[in-house]
Write a structure and sequence with these properties.
One of its GO terms (molecular function) is protein serine/threonine kinase activity. By secondary structure, the chain is of the alpha+beta class. It contains 22 helices and 14 strands. 39% of the residues lie in helices and 10% in strands. Strands 1-5-6-4-3-2 form a 6-stranded mixed sheet, with helices on both faces. The chain is elongated and about 130 Å long. Bound molecules: adenosine-5'-triphosphate.
Length: 686
């Protein structure tokens, strides 16, 4: 069979012609494909850019799951806030001003917090990064103010946080400053209490990892147009983790996509706005406290030695607790100066009372005071963990400040202010002699002289059988020593003991009256609440963790932050909400008001006397008495010194919602003999 030969004939002319025909087709095809791809790419790019340009409205309408923290350009925010003009200011806190930003594109308004990052101070920057790092954990709760975006330049000079706008600003502002009519309705207040409790419950029980807010207070509770409460300001918040306990830091990295490119600062560049945030937890998040931002809480000095009463001198005069609530600083991060601080109450201890002094030796007295009563002090005094502030400097600052405040209040022409006794002339001579005395020295001396004089008078009266014990004494017990509250009631003989406020009140009473007489604002504090600016941002200057009056005893000064710290702060907040006043406040009324100055003490005292409802704000209408008692009882449970005894936020929510039985007061606050409270069981009878 003949084999088949391969066709090795040369290509014909028609084949070459065919190839020439297909080449243009291939070229045309690939060109078309490239074109289509280019068009697709352009469309995608356009969409992406357009979405970023219209970020504000998009962000708001998005469900929390789709939420992503965006980067805004500085110029965009500047335009939206009318160059950060005063007219757009919503308020200010310790670390910057908050502005209302109107975005023309979406017609939406947002709140823009410009962190003060002035040279040499890191606190604002730390808060900024802390908030950003936590934002991703806070997705999904309608009870947390949403952080929608941020703006920062490479050098970290312009740090801005963008939040959803809360139309009624902070609870502090609405309740204590503006005294909004809506909040005079009990149901609204109870609703707010429940909202806040649920918000904290979300942080403690629904977030993974758990978040501890660390600064629960009225200025960090924001109210929307319907007065629904949300929790804001996570600048001091922490995630609960192993790292937290070991004190490691949390750090945030902002991935800058445009690093390669020359993004001109402040040009509203689109690329600048498309950067995303990546959070990385690396080191401990220890917020160092600088003198500028520390909240002064306590001043302690040694107790007097026995037998010093008659000759009580400034040196042996013991001031055990002095609590100062700082008001709004005039600008971001300014030092809480005398002008900007609101002293609300001062409690002090003199080892000078005959009874008390005789029990204490000079050496032991300090120990005794320290071990039992100076937990406030410890907040400020816990070693060097306060960013290098020495306790002494805080003390000195407070002393000087009080001195200057008193000096300010004293009329120049009234030389009798303190020295209305026999020794007035000698004191004034002494003052002339000693012109170089520091303010804190002169006021201490003058008070102690006045004190000694009054004590002498009282002793004379006592001898004559006239009881001179003021009712104030029974009111001003220490917060950290609840048992003493009870003791006062159980053991009437103990009432005769001079307590810690004595020397201060004795020394000041007359002068306080005159000072207070000048101020009529129901809301104003003892001396310088008048100086608190009505900006809507009245708040306390934050201390390292939390704020004076609101921070739990165990959390201050570098103590381990736990959920129970938030529970404690919630307790104070609840009392503020029910009573409609600040935790420390002396109003413009006579001395009868002074005994109520310390809200926590007062609440405990009322509980012991079975008169809890006296705490309720008189301006409230439609009061549900059992709910009010429930709130105060929960607050007192939260304020127990032992964190273990405080309820969890879950339990609190259950109590507030009626899902669990109403709680009983802690034993030490229950009236003697223990009696039930007028709760109606919320559980339906079966
Ligand atoms: N999202 C917001 N919407 C509306 N107003 C706001 C918003 N955030 C803050 N504000 C207002 O700005 C004020 C200042 O808030 P900011 O969080 O800066 O400080 P603060 O919590 O009052 O004080 P501190 O810095 O001492 O904690 C608030 O009291 C509130 O009135």
């Amino acid at each position: 069979m003949p084999s088949r030969q391969p066709d090795i004939s040369p290509p014909s002319v028609s084949d070459g012609h065919h190839r020439f025909q297909t080449l243009p087709l291939i070229l045309a095809g690939s060109l078309t494909l490239t074109g289509v791809l280019l068009i697709l790419f352009t469309i995608l790019l356009y969409q992406k850019l357009y979405r970023n340009r219209t970020a504000p409205s998009d962000l708001i309408s998005k469900s929390p799951q789709h939420y992503q923290c965006r980067r805004f350009s500085y110029s965009q925010l500047r335009r939206a806030t009318n160059s950060f003009s005063e007219s757009t200011q919503l308020g200010h806190g310790g670390f910057g001003y908050v502005y209302k930003a109107d975005f023309p594109t979406g017609g939406d308004s947002l709140a823009v917090k410009v962190m003060d990052s002035s040279a040499g101070s890191l606190q604002g920057e730390r808060e900024f990064h802390n908030e950003l790092s936590l934002a991703s954990h806070l997705i999904g709760s309608p009870r947390v103010v949403s952080l929608l975006g941020f703006s920062s330049d490479r050098r970290g000079r312009r740090l801005i946080l963008v939040y959803e706008l809360m139309a009624n600003r902070s609870l502090q502002d609405a309740l204590l400053d503006r005294k909004c009519e809506e909040l005079m309705d009990w149901n609204k207040r109870f609703e707010i209490a429940t909202d806040i409790a649920k918000g904290i419950e979300f942080l403690h029980h629904c977030c993974d990892p758990i978040i501890i807010h660390g600064d629960i207070k009225p200025s960090n509770i924001l109210l929307d147009s319907d007065f629904k409460a949300k929790i804001g300001d996570f600048g001091l918040a922490r995630v609960k983790s192993e790292d937290l306990v070991s004190g490691n830091d949390t750090r945030i990295l902002i991935e800058e996509e445009d690093k390669r490119k020359d993004v001109v600062e402040d040009n509203g560049s689109i690329l600048e706005e498309t950067e995303s945030v990546i959070t990385v937890f690396e080191e401990g998040n220890v917020v160092n406290l600088s003198p500028e931002n520390c909240g002064i809480s306590v001043v302690t000095e040694t107790a007097a030695s026995p037998g010093t009463t008659p000759g009580l001198s400034p040196e042996n005069c013991a001031m055990s607790v002095l609590t100062v609530e700082a008001g709004v600083s005039p600008g971001p991060r300014s030092i809480p100066s005398p002008e900007t601080c609101a002293i609300s109450v001062l409690t002090a201890e003199a080892g000078a009372s005959p009874g008390a002094a005789s029990e204490l030796s000079p050496g032991s007295s300090k120990l005794k005071v320290g071990s039992k009563r100076d937990w406030w002090w410890k907040q400020d005094n816990n070693g060097g963990s306060r960013g290098g502030i020495e306790s002494g400097s805080v003390k000195d600052y407070v002393m000087e400040w009080i001195g200057s405040e008193i000096k300010k209040e004293r009329p120049d022409n009234n030389k009798e202010w303190i020295n209305n006794g026999d020794d007035s002339s000698s004191v004034s001579k002494k003052k002339k002699k000693d012109k170089k005395r520091k303010p804190r020295e002169w006021w201490k001396e003058e008070f102690c002289e006045e004190l000694t004089r009054k004590k002498r008078k009282k002793r004379k009266k006592k001898k004559r059988g006239i009881s001179s014990i003021s009712s104030i004494e029974s009111w001003f017990h220490k917060d950290d020593d609840p048992s003493s509250v009870h003791d006062h009631n159980l053991n009437p003989t103990k009432r005769k003991k001079r307590n810690s406020i004595d020397w201060w009140v004795d020394g000041l009473s007359g002068d306080l009256k005159s000072v207070m007489g000048k101020k009529n604002s129901q809301d104003s504090g003892l001396w310088c609440d008048v100086n608190v600016q009505k900006s809507g941002g009245v708040s306390s200057t934050p201390s390292m963790r939390g704020t004076v009056c609101y921070i739990a005893p165990e959390c201050g000064g570098g103590g381990v932050l736990s959920e129970k710290c938030d529970v404690y702060s919630f307790g104070v907040l609840l009392l503020v909400l029910v009573s409609g006043r600040r935790p420390l406040q002396v109003t413009a009324s006579p001395m009868s008001e002074f005994e109520r100055a310390n809200l926590i003490s007062w609440a405990k005292q009322l509980a012991c006397n079975g008169k809890l409802l006296e705490l309720v704000d008189k301006s409230i209408h439609s009061l549900e008495k059992d709910q009010a008692v429930l709130c105060i009882t929960i607050a007192l449970l939260c304020l127990q010194r032992s964190p273990v005894k405080r309820p969890t936020m879950k339990e609190i929510v259950q109590m507030l919602s009626g899902a669990s039985e109403p709680p009983h007061l802690p034993f030490e606050f229950s009236p003697s003999p223990p009696m039930g409270f007028p709760f109606k069981s919320r559980k339906k009878a079966r």
